[in-house]
Amino acid sequence: MSIGFEIDERVADIARRTTEFVRNTVLPAEEASGGNVHAGPEPLRRRLQEAARAAGVFAPHAGRAWGGLGLDLCGQAVVFEAAGYSLLGPLALNCAAPDEGNMHLLEAVATEKQKERYLRPLAAGETRSCFAMTEPAPGAGSDPRALSTTATRTGRGWRIDGRKWFISGADGAAFAICMARTSGTPGDPGGATMFLVDAANPGMKITRNIDTLDQGLFGGHSELVLDGCEVDDDAVLGEPDQGFAYAQVRLGPARMTHCMRWLGAARRAQDIALERAADRSAFGRPLAELGMVQQLLADSEIDIETGRAMLWRACWELDQGRPAAQHTSIAKTYVSEAVNRVVDRAVQVCGALGISGDAPLSRLYREVRPFRIYDGPSETHRWAIAKRAVRAARERRAAR
Amino acid sequence: MSIGFEIDERVADIARRTTEFVRNTVLPAEEASGGNVHAGPEPLRRRLQEAARAAGVFAPHAGRAWGGLGLDLCGQAVVFEAAGYSLLGPLALNCAAPDEGNMHLLEAVATEKQKERYLRPLAAGETRSCFAMTEPAPGAGSDPRALSTTATRTGRGWRIDGRKWFISGADGAAFAICMARTSGTPGDPGGATMFLVDAANPGMKITRNIDTLDQGLFGGHSELVLDGCEVDDDAVLGEPDQGFAYAQVRLGPARMTHCMRWLGAARRAQDIALERAADRSAFGRPLAELGMVQQLLADSEIDIETGRAMLWRACWELDQGRPAAQHTSIAKTYVSEAVNRVVDRAVQVCGALGISGDAPLSRLYREVRPFRIYDGPSETHRWAIAKRAVRAARERRAAR
Amino acid sequence: MSIGFEIDERVADIARRTTEFVRNTVLPAEEASGGNVHAGPEPLRRRLQEAARAAGVFAPHAGRAWGGLGLDLCGQAVVFEAAGYSLLGPLALNCAAPDEGNMHLLEAVATEKQKERYLRPLAAGETRSCFAMTEPAPGAGSDPRALSTTATRTGRGWRIDGRKWFISGADGAAFAICMARTSGTPGDPGGATMFLVDAANPGMKITRNIDTLDQGLFGGHSELVLDGCEVDDDAVLGEPDQGFAYAQVRLGPARMTHCMRWLGAARRAQDIALERAADRSAFGRPLAELGMVQQLLADSEIDIETGRAMLWRACWELDQGRPAAQHTSIAKTYVSEAVNRVVDRAVQVCGALGISGDAPLSRLYREVRPFRIYDGPSETHRWAIAKRAVRAARERRAAR
Amino acid sequence: MSIGFEIDERVADIARRTTEFVRNTVLPAEEASGGNVHAGPEPLRRRLQEAARAAGVFAPHAGRAWGGLGLDLCGQAVVFEAAGYSLLGPLALNCAAPDEGNMHLLEAVATEKQKERYLRPLAAGETRSCFAMTEPAPGAGSDPRALSTTATRTGRGWRIDGRKWFISGADGAAFAICMARTSGTPGDPGGATMFLVDAANPGMKITRNIDTLDQGLFGGHSELVLDGCEVDDDAVLGEPDQGFAYAQVRLGPARMTHCMRWLGAARRAQDIALERAADRSAFGRPLAELGMVQQLLADSEIDIETGRAMLWRACWELDQGRPAAQHTSIAKTYVSEAVNRVVDRAVQVCGALGISGDAPLSRLYREVRPFRIYDGPSETHRWAIAKRAVRAARERRAAR
User: What CA–CA distance (Å, rounded) separates A101 from A95?
Assistant: First the structure.
């Protein structure tokens, strides 16, 4: 093993087919639907996923046992970026958030029985799912330890009570993976447990779908109430009180897969800007020859290339099974901000067109903004990055 | 006269009443309507303008002869910022774009007869108007000289042919001030003429309302077709072939009034962020005591204060009747970018709330972005700023 | 009074003469000496100050009773910027740090006897002075309350013990204004007293002159030791235990005068860049027509103009005797950073020339950097700005 | 081959020994000499290089035939960063600019005879060299095609006439690789030839050593005059008229090795800042717990990690022999700017200490600035990056 940036033959082949599939099948569907998955009908999802399966690019991340292609994170980095070129691409490949992260979590933690019941149909695209962790203030937000939803023992299982919000994809999901506190009090660093809660459970209700800046997620972002929500013992995912640890199992890679998909969106915005700059003139010269436009275009190339290099690094560390928190924090922070800059510049290059619905840029502008907040806001990641760096400096000194 | 930042007693009084009016009357109306002027019914506009008149804050910019308060630009800077605190505030005071700029233009250039016919009802809030200059590529965009709509002599007047887009407020406007080329060819620095075209003119048609990132303008942004649009000689505004010069008469102050209103929006976003930081805790401490949040808040205070100081400077130069192109370009570029930064930071401070529709931030985030493109994109202004600075340096040297 | 940016006739006249004086007398002296005041001989200072007196521009800030021109801060803002165009300009006008701030402090706080003894020769340029507040860690630094130098009562006065560093201008100064703790312990918000200590006092010694990035200050930055330094009771400046309050009297305006001088330096860097861009070609076109160069030039114009507008605002607030801490913090933070950006861009525009000693840019690059640390680092000011903004938000809410 | 970030065993071993060697031998020598290579005596260079040889880390980049370790660029990336941790490290390992780039060029292009005469002693550290391409305006600068030094045929060779400046390391070099125009006129994209000119040649004279912001290069930056400088035919390096192509052979990797060394300097600045933040308190809390300090520290970690990932990517492309101009332009632009940001932040974290000579930060601050200009200013690279991106977009479209 050594330093290298060669993409494996098999991965390159899947990526090529994904790119072709996105161009020929997904982009036309996006155009037809206004890219509006939020309001999109279930049949569109079914049809696109059928086509992805036919193109041999369905569920690239899921294990082969579950009908997927079994790619590791480095492989996913290449393929998901290709999929992310369209807002509908990840949905078509069944690798969109939050399902993709939930599949990963279930593969890692669930019992065989739970896998058959929840993972198999999810990986096959027959169901959707959600991950119910975030709570309205003062509950679990950028600080997950503030978790205040509780699960208390009943005779034959648990009763969950609390409120959740910004639960992506909840509307239409077959089940939720729900974090609740089984010991300790809000602020404690432990004591959380994950539960598999069926959508049909009468104790869990969607109280509203939140109107948000982004519109790209199937099912949107919902607010849930868990009110005397009773579940059996076999609804516990993994061990009780280990929920925060499992959340890390899910969040480390999930942050990276977010980056991959958004990098594809950034690439698309930049391609639109490049084509515009190549075609359009102002002040008697092609835009592409105006220095300030060149600077916008160059800065976006720099952002995309550096972001991709850093993302691959973090993915490789995770693939090696090494502690990768510092690398994933850096990649998430950098890529989320880089992607925002790229889209913002593309809007600027395209001018009035950029802010109209005639190009997908204004839509992308809305979609990428929340990514600097979701999965840990930039400030929380920077705080963690600095803390780890200071700790490492102290250890280096102690070792001298 | 000397350097000073004291607000005149009368202006301060109008501003105080505006602030109170916005808080008590406009913000509740904004909340009730979702701030969505675009879809807002005409009655809302009428009702708010009645209330503004009752509060003594109606049409602060318009001459007293036309029912306004006759403030100069320095006075407008103070009052419009107070009005801009709500997205509906400028509409309520009848000082929203594009009507406000059109009133200014008509006062400066129109004949008495034209004033009675177009300005009087406009200043009174009985009608709305639009300014039809921008064209789809390769026509007049960031480079107005690319104007390609033509007006040709007929027996009894002119026939206008061409396409316009991004014409703000066109839907529902009683008339358009329409730029057309009466001599020369696209790219020539002269040869434009302004025409007053009634909405009822069968030769002018709205072909669609453009879906844009921003939603704040009454009437939205429309695409127009002028197809054999015949007008009489007295439809000419000012002198023929002087259209580009009049456009500067309109655009210089219009850029500044945009800045004033958006500065009010920035102030509001910052106030929301400050209240959130004061109320909410994370990681066991109030947000307002976390250093990275303090940095976001401080940077926004800096942006608002420096932007306001620069804006007042440019307004004062215009009020003195001095050549102020450099000052207005700098103020427009700086304020438009500062306002975007302020709103972006407020979104970040508020986290999930910031991107939801539960606070007006996600709405403001969409509204302020186009301002870096409208009225000359930042790049065009920077180009002009640099050119003037280099020319001044050459002149200084020649004088030595 | 109202909003205005007109420069008073008298101030404009002094500024014009200062500009002329700097161009004809100071810049040639700067060139001859390599701008190196640090190593500069005392005769140069004497000669330049004589010439400034002859030109009628000497000591613009000092009261007329002390031989100065008695300008308020708004007037100083205009004249000091003109002086700051050369690194030697402020020295020539006897308005360089730290003497200028010390004169202000002495005028405000000293007894008549102290004024005659210390202020009169200082204002006349016969002596120089220093302000001994900063201490090496863990003493008084960005947090002045950490003051650990002590002054203890003796029979006939006080004995001062402690270490000071980064004491600008100490080498060659006739006296120091020295902050020492007369009550409380390091960290307490009160308990400091200011003492006038003659350079001849055997208890105060310069232990070394610190090698620093900047080289512009006459006398450089020194480290002092106060070891059993005995002074009489009449060495106390103002009231005992009021030192921190007096420090604010000095620092508020001193921050602003720093900004004024550095703004002049920024203007000079930008002028060099503009001339270079006007003269030099690359890739077959004048630099001044290359878009990325235009962007650098425009951004610097924006920085200078916005910085000046903000600075004038803060000066005006101080001149009115209003609480101006928020305005001065904002002006200091913004101008110090803007000045650094301007000089950095000028270096970039000038390329190899910019980093050579053939233009003064590499020298300016070194001189302006510490300004983001001196007089409160940007982080300390941002912390204070945010705190005040949050407090104001809380008060606004309480008032509703 | 696949994506990977594992460092080869042998490279890791050399890097480990380099780190140890720098810490135990080079840093003490740097401290003793004030890091001032510029004025440093030749014996210091000899002694450090002896020690490096003894430590088994001498000339990591040079071929084994020339006494080096024969590392490819990916290997150099790891080892040079370790060497760059001290300003004297690259000199000690004989991998400093410009010698390192000249060795690479000679290995690639020189005849066997030329290699024996010039490369062997250079690789062994017995001689030093320089690369004489840059000329004062309007000659070859950021645009090499402006080359105006001429070489004209004589009976037995060539006569070179022209002026060069910013020729790094010229003072004390045994020979220069000198670019001169053998056909065409300034501005032509071809017609340059490289010549090996001995320092003893009476036609080549150093006219002055330029005083520059950076002080780190042995021999500094000199101005040369070539006045009737006669050389034989075997002084031609490679083929006549191929000089611009060879310059690319040299510059592509040379840009990357610059990045490697400066990344080491950035790492050092950040380590100083981290230790300071861990040790020092302000406002009653350790610096390392203040949010704004954490942000500075985190941003620098992000800059270093993303810069390194991008650098490795570009090195790998070069090692594969693929066209890597886009990757190297992006890496050079990004790393040079990132390194400047990192050092600037470290200065800020360390406050007064950061700008004093008591820590190496003020020195590093001066050293890294020119790197955004040397080897192609950021603007030139951005221009090239944008052009390539637009061209690629056009090709992609043509292929559809």
Answer: 8
Nearest to D365 among C143, C187, C213 (CB): C213
The span from the CA of B330 to the CA of C298, in Å, is: 9
* Strand, helix or coil for residue A323: coil
- For residue range B80-137, list pLDDT tens digits in order: 999 999 999 999 999 999 999 999 999 999 999 999 999 999 999 999 999 999 999 8
**How close does chain B come to D99, measured CA to CA in Å?**
40
- From chain D, the residues in CB contact with B282 under 8 A are none
Measured distance CA(A213)–CA(A365) in Å, rounded: 9
Which chains are within 8 Å of A by 3+ CB pairs? B, C, D
C-alpha span between D171 and D224 (Å, rounded): 10
Q: Which of D356, D375, D380, D382 to mutate to test the interface with C (most CBs of C within 10 A)?
A: D356
Chain B residues in contact with C383 by the CB 8 A cut-off are: 291, 294, 298
Taking CA–CA distances from A291, the nearest residue in chain C reads: C291
ipTM: 0.95
Do residue D166 and residue C352 have CB atoms under 8 angstroms apart?
yes
**Is pLDDT at C38 greater than 70 in this prediction?**
no
Contacts with A368 (C-beta within 8 Å, 6 or more apart), sequence order: A214, A262, A265, A266, A336, A339, A340, A343
* 3-state secondary structure at position D304: helix
Distance of CA B54 to the CA centre of its chain: 24
Instruction: Say how many CB pairs under 8 Å bridge C and D.
Output: 109
**Cα(C380)–Cα(B138) distance, integer angstroms:** 51
Q: What is the pLDDT of residue C37?
A: 61
Residues in chain A closer than 8 A to D298 (CB atoms): 333, 381-383, 385-386, 389
pLDDT digits (tens, 9 = 90+) for D123-166: 999 999 999 999 998 898 878 899 999 999 998 899 999 999 99
Q: Work out the end-to-end distance of chain B between its first and last CA atoms, rounded to an integer number of angstroms.
A: 30
Dump pLDDT digits (tens) for C157-214.
999 999 999 999 999 999 999 999 999 999 999 999 999 999 999 999 999 999 899 9
The owner of tokens 């206004």 is A34
Q: Which of C168, C210, C213 to mutate to test the interface with D (most CBs of D within 10 A)?
A: C213
Q: pLDDT band for position A352 (50/70/90)?
A: confident
Cβ pairs bridging A and D (under 8 Å): 168
C-alpha–C-alpha distance, residues D108 and D121, integer Å: 16
Domains for chain C: give ranges and CATH numbers.
9-96 (1.10.540.10), 129-241 (2.40.110.10), 244-399 (1.20.140.10)
pLDDT tens digits, A79-98? 999 999 999 999 999 999 99
- Other beta carbons within 10 angstroms of residue C144's beta carbon come to 21
Residue with tokens 């080329």: B181
Q: How confident is the model at residue A142 (pLDDT cuts 50, 70, 90)?
A: confident
Please state, in angstroms and rounded to a whole number, the distance separating the CA atoms of residues C175 and D263. Answer: 46
